[in-house]
């Protein structure tokens, strides 16, 4: 082991601990050491540890999301670029989705020599600290569910779904864009309900087509970021949208994401609808704050969290009604057995990948927030041609 590698080991070990002075002394050792040797040791360590993550279920988008959450902006950028450097060492075949994710993060790599100084913005000491923090983060990450085969693997894993460019999905996106842009809650919910109905019909058609063709493809999976504040309420919204679309969601609070398992058309619906509904939920919460302020109430964290929890649960009820209506319209004898078999396959996959899951108990800390959130999700009829319903005045 070279002197630079020994200094780096010491810096990483002390950064994991609680002794701030010891960590600063170890960092000072890196600062005064041979810069080229330290840069080479850092790059070798980071690329090695990043490469170990791919066979353990991680994807570039997952790592970038977590780095953005836990590191400084420069630290996240450093780790992003290290992924690009590590890409050069990957064994073939490297799937297209992997490179697409790297491109989406903005990862780039030019040359190994002086790589840290080029990203230091004139502050090498802080850049070294950020790089050490990135090394600590990467080295401490646990395995996660493998949703796709890693680079160099000829095996199979869960096939992740990517929404296609079909005309139907274009219609769904247009409806959700209208829902997000309107200032009228009833209109927003009517647009969202129509989008859910279209997605439900698309999913049912896909399920019947697969059953008729005797396809054997199993459930796939996607990961959706869940960020503070109110991460639990946002995870609940994902869960409600997932359940509406015959998917299962498992929230990994410590890692900042939810894993959603289901069949491709259903996963596409979850990603589209969740994104739109999160925008709508936030807008509804802000309106609720304003109404609370005008009534003389004070904004509290409990109010916001209760509002979002109630919104998620009530929206889930409304979306399930839309999905049920779509299924009734088709009236196909093959439908129930096909959908039941798909639901069983998804639950089996969840049990395989997440055998130790626990349930999170929902807490209502502010009654007014709960009532307001329920009302915000309950103002509109699911059918745009029917009159709006009166708001509910009680809890779930």
TrEMBL record:
Residue stretches of biased makeup (Basic residues): 387-396
Chain segments carrying region Disordered: 365-396
Alphabetized Pfam families for the sequence: DUF2786 (PF10979)
Residue ranges annotated for the DUF2786 domain, each copy included: 167-205
Protein's name according to its UniProt entry: DUF2786 domain-containing protein
């Amino acid at each position: 082991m070279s002197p630079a590698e020994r200094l780096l080991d010491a810096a990483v070990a002390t950064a994991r601990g609680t002794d701030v002075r010891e960590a600063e002394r170890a960092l000072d050792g890196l600062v005064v050491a041979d810069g080229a040797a330290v840069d080479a040791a850092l790059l070798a360590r980071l690329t090695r540890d990043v490469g170990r993550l791919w066979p353990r279920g991680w994807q570039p988008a997952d790592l970038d999301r977590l780095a953005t959450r836990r590191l400084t902006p420069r630290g996240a950028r450093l780790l992003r670029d290290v992924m690009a450097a590590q890409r050069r060492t990957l064994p073939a075949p490297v799937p297209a989705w992997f490179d697409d994710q790297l491109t989406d993060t903005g990862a780039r790599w030019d040359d190994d020599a002086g790589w840290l100084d080029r990203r230091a913005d004139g502050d090498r000491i802080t850049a070294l600290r950020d790089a050490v923090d990135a090394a600590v983060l990467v080295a401490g990450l646990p395995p996660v569910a493998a949703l796709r085969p890693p680079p160099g693997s000829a095996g199979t894993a869960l096939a992740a779904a990517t929404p296609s460019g079909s005309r139907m999905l274009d219609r769904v996106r247009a409806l959700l864009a209208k829902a997000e842009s309107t200032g009228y809650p009833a209109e927003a919910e009517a647009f969202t309900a129509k989008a859910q109905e279209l997605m439900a019909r698309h999913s049912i058609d896909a399920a019947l087509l697969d059953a008729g063709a005797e396809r054997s493809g199993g459930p796939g999976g996607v990961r959706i970021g869940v960020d503070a504040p109110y991460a639990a309420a946002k995870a609940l919204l994902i869960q409600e949208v997932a359940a509406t679309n015959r998917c299962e969601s498992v929230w990994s609070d410590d890692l900042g994401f939810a894993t959603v398992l289901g069949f491709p058309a259903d996963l596409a619906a979850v990603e589209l609808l969740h994104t739109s509904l999160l925008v709508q939920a936030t807008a509804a919460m802000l309106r609720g704050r304003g109404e609370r302020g005008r009534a003389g109430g004070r904004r509290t964290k409990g109010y916001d969290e209760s509002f979002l929890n109630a919104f998620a649960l009530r929206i889930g009820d409304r979306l399930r009604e839309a999905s049920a209506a779509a299924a009734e319209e088709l009236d196909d004898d093959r439908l129930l057995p096909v959908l039941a078999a798909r639901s069983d396959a998804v639950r089996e996959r969840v049990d395989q990948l997440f055998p130790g899951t626990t349930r999170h108990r929902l807490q209502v800390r502010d009654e007014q927030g709960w009532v307001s959130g329920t009302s915000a999700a309950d103002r509109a009829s699911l059918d745009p041609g029917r009159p709006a319903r009166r708001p509910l005045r009680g809890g779930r």
